[in-house]
Amino acid sequence: MTNRKDALRDQRAKMLAAAPDWRASDARVNPRVAIGSIIAMWVIYFLITTGLAMLTGAPEQWPSAGRRAVVVVAGILCTFVLYQLLQRAQPQSFGARLAAAMGTAVPLVIVYATINLLVFYHWFPVSESAKLIEEMQAKYPGAWETVLILDSSIRWYFFFAVWAALYVAFGYANEMRAVERRANHFRIEAQTAQLRALHYQVNPHFLFNTLNSLSTLVLRGSKAEAETMIMNLSSFLRSSLAIDPQQLVSLDEEIALQRLYLDIEQARFPDRLQVEVMIPDQLKHACVPVLILQPIIENAIKYGVSPSKGRIAIRLQASAEHGMLVLRIENDIDPKAPVPASGTGLGLGNVRERLLTRYGPAAGCEWGKSDNGGFFVSLWLPLAREAC
User: Fold this and answer.
1) Environment class of residue 135 by beta-carbon count within 10 Å: exposed (0-12), middle (13-18) or buried (19+)?
2) The pTM is what?
3) Which three-class secondary structure string do you get for the chain?
4) Angle at which helices 31-56 and 144-220 pack, to 10 degrees?
5) How far apart are CA 100 and CA 286, in angstroms?
6) DSSP element (H, E) containing 322
7) Is 221 left (phi over 0), alpha (psi -120 to 50) or beta?
């Protein structure tokens, strides 16, 4: 037991240690999307700025457009470097990521503003540039370039910041989707485990009752009946244990499985057990969880047939009501028979739990005394004919 606890603790520690790696991987934006957004942003800027220059009749439009194209290429490269840096820095919280993105954008904006200054005022100056240089030199002698770079950096920072914030938002959305997928996966695994546990709970419950019946036959010396019951038990177990606990079967198939069990009990109560099945043809292919009727049939025999002295009927009816499949199992009770000790509620509780686990509040199960003095169990679930 200690070794098992240690192994579980080590496994949990490994999962927690790996969590940051999962988050970083989940938060990464598809490179095609990231690079495409960078190019699109700068191309749109180029087209809008050039279009406005043409509409306002700005001088030297084509030379300015060529210089602007060079600056746009530089902007694309600077934003790509920003993308690479953001891809490697993945703090856990959204606020920390956004702060890292805003801070990382600062030096790249300064680099871009410097390139913009070099292109328009040093490498390829135009007449408008010369006038502005003279004004800046008169205003800020010896520091005019620094002032222009700072002024451009402030204006261009918001351009870079918008893209950085958009990238962080995309990454966070990716992470939330991955977390949701992982949570759904764990939820499905938990539901599967619960369904399996509930299904396997049926077999020990059934075996306990059947072995008690077999013991009774042996004590009575009913060798032939005991042999028949053993053969029927073998057939039933072979069929039921080979079934996937999550499987849905048609109502017709579920009834066939129950008839295998009823064959076992028929050997024990040849003169007392009477079974009536009333299922409309259109509902024979309705889907139900496999062996969902097993505990109900068991209880009907244990509390209805077993203590009685006369013939007891077990009736199974199916109907469709408002898009739901309704199954009602009813058994007679001999008023002269001794009242058996109340059970643990395991069987009917199992049925209700399986329905709630698979279908949620859309399904349910109730039971009680019927109008004719017998006992009924009614269960309902969504009507489906194509999932099984």
Assistant:
1) exposed
2) 0.49
3) CHHHHHHHHHHHHHHHHHHHHHHHHHHCCCHHHHHHHHHHHHHHHHHHHHHHHHHHCCCCHHHHHHHHHHHHHHHHHHHHHHHHHHHHCCCCCHHHHHHHHHHHHHHHHHHHHHHHHHHHHHHCCCHHHHHHHHHHHHHCCCCHHHHHHHHHHHHHHHHHHHHHHHHHHHHHHHHHHHHHHHHHHHHHHHHHHHHHHHHHHHHHHHHHHHHHHHHHHHHHCCHHHHHHHHHHHHHHHHHHHCCCCCCEEEHHHHHHHHHHHHHHHHHHCCCCEEEEEECCHHHCCCEEECCCCHHHHHHHHHHHHCCCCCCEEEEEEEEEECCEEEEEEEECCCCCCCCCCCCCCHHHHHHHHHHHHHHHHHCEEEEEECCCCCEEEEEEEECCCCCC
4) 150
5) 57
6) none
7) left
Please check whether residue 167 is in contact with residue 34, taking contact to mean a CB–CB distance below 8 angstroms: yes
Angle between helix axes 144-220 and 2-27 (nearest 10 degrees) is: 140
For residue 240 the two structure tokens come to 């039921």
Per-residue pLDDT tens digits of the chain, which is 388 residues long: 444 445 444 444 443 344 444 455 565 778 888 888 889 988 988 888 888 877 777 666 677 788 888 888 998 999 898 888 887 766 567 777 788 888 888 888 999 888 888 887 777 776 666 666 666 666 667 677 787 888 888 888 888 888 888 888 888 887 788 777 777 766 665 556 555 555 545 556 567 767 777 887 788 887 887 888 788 778 777 776 666 667 788 999 899 888 888 887 777 787 888 899 999 999 999 999 888 898 898 888 888 888 888 888 999 999 999 899 999 999 988 877 776 666 556 678 888 888 888 888 889 999 999 888 889 999 999 998 876 7
Separation CA 116–CA 179 (nearest Å): 42
How far lies 54's CA from each of 47, 73, 131, 161, in Å?
Answer: 11, 21, 21, 28
DSSP conformational letter for 141: T
Tokens of 363: 């399904």
Q: Is 289 helix (H, G, I), strand (E, B) or coil?
A: strand
Report the DSSP pairing between strands 324-331 and 287-289.
unpaired
Going by C-alpha positions, the residue among 216, 205, 243 that lies closest to residue 307 is 216
